[in-house]
Design goal:
The chain is mainly α. It has ten helices and four strands, in the order ααββααβααβαααα. Helices cover 54% and strands 10% of the residues. The chain is globular.
Length: 198
């Protein structure tokens, strides 16, 4: 209950405090190509329940039909504004709406696309999907700019599967097994430092 209370208070505060930034991003995205401001992708929530995760759109319309779910920093599907939004994690801010709705938490394993969930072992599913997915976690701190690691790769999807996903799953399981109020506060603080200071 205390975690949910913090999620509600944090998401409400974030949505109000960051509303000018939301407006700025929405106008810039709309002016860029006239497409939708938000991208809503299907993700697996607690116990595998599907939900639509909100993000500011950083890719061209129909990008999911032009390539895989992994996005490199030099992905040709990115819009002109996309790299800037991703560099400062601004594209993730609309997930505060998912937190307020109760589909996500401020801290928890990053929600995965159904394809990656199907690849999980039974143990990984039991542990990782036992809690709500979050906006940030230990894996997010370890790999804060995933797109930069994938940059220049001839096959970003293969690099993700081989170099990123195994460690990401290990850290997600570690978070769930060790989760606590203090750990959540540390992750939130470290995430803020990453955003503002790199």
């Amino acid at each position: 209950m205390s975690k949910r209370l913090i999620d509600i208070m944090g998401s409400c505060f974030g949505l109000v405090f960051l509303s000018p930034l939301f407006l700025f991003a929405a106008i810039k995205i709309k002016l860029n190509d006239g497409g939708p401001v938000f991208y809503m992708g299907e993700r697996a929530g607690k116990k595998g329940k599907p939900f639509l995760m909100y993000k500011f759109r950083t890719m061209v319309i129909g990008a999911d039909k032009l390539g895989g779910p992994s996005t490199a920093g030099d992905d040709p599907r990115l819009t002109k504004l996309g790299p800037f939004l991703k560099k400062y994690q601004l594209d993730e801010l609309p997930q505060l709406i998912n937190v307020l709705k109760g589909e996500m938490s401020l801290v928890g394993p990053r929600p995965e696309v159904p394809m990656y969930v199907r690849m999980m072992t039974a143990e990984e599913k039991d542990v990782i999907l036992s809690v709500k997915p979050g906006m940030t976690d230990l894996a997010s701190l370890w790999n804060f700019h995933e797109g930069e690691i994938l940059k220049g790769a001839s096959d970003p999807e293969r690099v993700y599967q081989e170099k990123i996903r195994p460690q990401k799953l290990r850290l997600q399981m570690e978070y769930v097994k060790k989760r606590s109020f203090m750990l959540d506060l540390k992750i939130i603080a470290k995430t803020a430092l990453k955003v503002f200071y790199g």
